[in-house]
Design brief:
By secondary structure, the protein is mainly beta. Helices cover 14% and strands 48% of the residues. It has one helix and eight strands; from the N terminus they run H-E-E-E-E-E-E-E-E. The protein has one helix at 2-19, and strands at residues 26-28, 32-39, 44-53, 61-66, 71-75, 85-93, 100-110, 116-126. The strands form two sheets. The protein has a four-stranded antiparallel sheet, with no helix packed on it. Strands 2-8-7-4 form a four-stranded mixed sheet, with no helix packed on it. Strand 7 (100-110) and strand 8 (116-126) form a beta hairpin. It is elongated.
């Protein structure tokens, strides 16, 4: 009986110490951006994804990787305080690419409770009439 009581007290102490661990958490306003239809002559388009650290510890973006070399993400490199906002800018360069529909994935890696988040950009680049 004494052994069981000791184990229960140890478990409660362990839960109490590690249950309140400070964690950051990333919440995006949206995870998909549609550029719509744009001409090949204006093949470079950019969008911004805004996020908030809804956790209780500073958020650090470690990496932003695009699924293709035609897509370049850039992000806030300083730690984002709890409750503060940050942004990830994504540029798609369709120059030299075939016109038509595209969908690209940007993978965000951070110290947040959800370590990986995927963002998506899509659009339709149309061929210029005069070539």
């Amino acid at each position: 009986m004494r052994c069981i009581l000791t184990i229960l007290v140890a478990l409660l102490a362990f839960t109490g110490v590690y249950g309140d661990t400070a964690l950051s958490e990333i919440k995006f306003d949206t995870t998909v951006h549609n550029f719509g239809t744009f001409p090949e002559s204006k093949s470079v388009v950019t969008c911004k994804f805004t996020f908030t650290n809804v956790g209780n510890a500073p958020l650090i973006i470690n990496q932003a990787i695009a699924s293709c070399g035609c897509t370049v993400p850039s992000y806030t490199e300083k730690p984002i305080a709890p409750g503060a906002k940050g942004e990830i800018s994504v540029t798609y360069n369709g120059k030299g690419r075939y016109p038509g529909y595209f969908k690209k994935i940007i993978t965000i890696r951070s110290n947040a409770k959800t370590h990986l988040v995927r963002l998506y950009i899509e659009g339709n680049m149309t061929e210029d009439a005069q070539k």
